[in-house]
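Batch 3, record 17
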Amino acid sequence: MSAPGPRAGSSGTLGRSGFSPLMMRTGSTGSVPGKEPCDTAGNSAVHGTGGVTVARLAPRRRYAREVALEAITPAPILPVWASYAAVAVGGVAGASHAARRGFDVIGVLGLAIATGLGGLLLRDVLLQKGTPVVLVDPRYLLSACLAALVGFFFAGLIVRLNRLLVGLDALAMGLMVGLGVSAAIWYQLGVAAAIFLGVTTAVGGSVLRDLLSGEPPSVMRPGIFSGLAALIGAVAFEGLFKLALPVFWVQVGTIATVFAVRILALWRGWETPTSVDVTDRLWDFWARRGQRGRSP
Amino acid sequence: MSAPGPRAGSSGTLGRSGFSPLMMRTGSTGSVPGKEPCDTAGNSAVHGTGGVTVARLAPRRRYAREVALEAITPAPILPVWASYAAVAVGGVAGASHAARRGFDVIGVLGLAIATGLGGLLLRDVLLQKGTPVVLVDPRYLLSACLAALVGFFFAGLIVRLNRLLVGLDALAMGLMVGLGVSAAIWYQLGVAAAIFLGVTTAVGGSVLRDLLSGEPPSVMRPGIFSGLAALIGAVAFEGLFKLALPVFWVQVGTIATVFAVRILALWRGWETPTSVDVTDRLWDFWARRGQRGRSP
Amino acid sequence: MSAPGPRAGSSGTLGRSGFSPLMMRTGSTGSVPGKEPCDTAGNSAVHGTGGVTVARLAPRRRYAREVALEAITPAPILPVWASYAAVAVGGVAGASHAARRGFDVIGVLGLAIATGLGGLLLRDVLLQKGTPVVLVDPRYLLSACLAALVGFFFAGLIVRLNRLLVGLDALAMGLMVGLGVSAAIWYQLGVAAAIFLGVTTAVGGSVLRDLLSGEPPSVMRPGIFSGLAALIGAVAFEGLFKLALPVFWVQVGTIATVFAVRILALWRGWETPTSVDVTDRLWDFWARRGQRGRSP
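Prediction for the assembled complex:
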């Protein structure tokens, strides 16, 4: 069995969604028969980057594996074009960010690609399981380039559609969180690493955009609920997945959580909490307790 | 056939340069006989990083594979020392950048390595096909360190040779574009990913240099034709490669294109185009068309 | 023999510490019997990330391989909790860095993770030998998160313990240098790459912290002996390793070297050397020599 299955801890809980050992073998469908299976065969089949494997898979199936959970569950999942749309939304945000600052054509293109694809690129570079899917599947780069075109020529339109874009950005972030966490689960990483990768995938594009445009990453600064919303979403994905919900509903639940947190924070004017120094309070508490203990 | 061959789409066009299936097997020359070939065997042979493989290849052949096209074509290609020279040129630029800002010995060394090797490092990290060649082949790090020495002690010389360095930098960028695109072609990535990797390899060093010295990346800013020249060069490489020219001439053509664009832009004072907002114009156009359509 | 052994050049010198071919096979202990070993099997065993391999190794042994030298020497090495402690020390520094700047909860958490794990993450991403160990072993992320908690709530305590933290930071940097160099040696990279990786592992966290908080990386600036201390430590590790000392003493020697250099530099107020321009002096020297040669 060369295909890396789901995490040992959660394989039992997948039973309710019709999980069977048969499904586990989907990952190695592409391996050439009559050849001793290697550990990498399963991985490259998942990503569709293997030398021989690629040619034998129909294009549709090859890229659909991006949403890595498909292979471990027969339940319906979000279609792959949702990922392209999320990349395009991020790309438009990056391109208009560059256009507002008067960057040139390379700046607009670069920031569109960095903002749109940065999160997925960072996820795959950190996972180290073959060439990043955004380089293998040309539709990702195409989505980002189309977004760059829109940002280059239609800055006025983007300003007018600002409210729509804020909503779309919140939806896209929810999807990115899911793509990050599910890839970590697929490669059997632990809960902490899965949440870390979910947040990284969600905010990676915006961090890369800020770095490349020479500004301090806004996700680290207090104010907007973007990083915290991604963290809450990643925890929600892990929780819903542990509840053995069908993967489709885990994904939808994550997107709804991130969307709700971000829109509520905007509407109610919530601010993210900054650090509090409890050293003195704790010191006083212990000091008084010590005095009381001594005085009787 | 464990060796990843050239892209399926372009294998036919290579016929003119004497391409044969026999050449495709060159990639797996280093695999140990009597062992079932794994998918990784071909990859590690290309990079020369495999455990057993390395010891059996003569040093010269091991590093020559860096210019990855060698194995898929019998035509002459640019010698590998051209890559070392390009790294050294980038390294001198990075070191003098650091020396001008009064950085210390680590700053000069760090910026020389980042500027010289950053592009190739970024390419290999994004491709995820084994340890980056700049770490495997010690001559790359050596070239960058020598460049750091020159930048540390001969800042005055660099100022006097400024014109020469601008020309060498343009030549080095052309070579880097070629190394990026050809690696993407070798690993069967699509046209969009190949162009993306070509530009990334060419400008990666300068982006890393600016980030590490705490400045906004200059390649994103309007003005100099550096990113745009790399983009034009990457498109030229893809076009010439599709025309089935011998790889040597594809490389030379790319370098000439990048060099010509950059020198022409400097000489004529060209500025890169910044974004234009055509929303209102398009709005008016459609509005008038609608009126005309209604009025008759 | 699928396990990548130590560098060919230094395998002989390990004889004194009881090195035997038998030890070399430790790396592939986890490979499934009855299966043709692939090149990757050895790698995944080292990192403990292989699909089947992981389940068959007891947790203790699985993570202990992080200190990669364990498998090539029977000599005692530093325990793996030293790595967790080093990550926690870096994490506290990053978290208090964020808290001082008024960042929010995500900023404190992000900078704690970036500062604590950045070096090891960068090392594994550059080596490209499977998923980074800091993602596979959850205790690394846990250490960084605990450090973030301390930085979030006990900023006052950290200020009071400043002197202790400077010392701990110097010790942690020494350990990081060792982890970087030993991983490069384990994967048979050359001396230059090993020193480069040692320095990168040691200063990577601080560079990432500065980039994410929107400041120019302090390691490049003149003043503090941090990058230079790491460079001296990496050279010391290589030198002591070449002397065939037991690995435990190589590690301790490296930590002592880095600690001594940093504390001495603080105490004596040493400044790192900045670049000097010897062009004119060399010019004059040669010009005078030429005159003398002509005058007789």
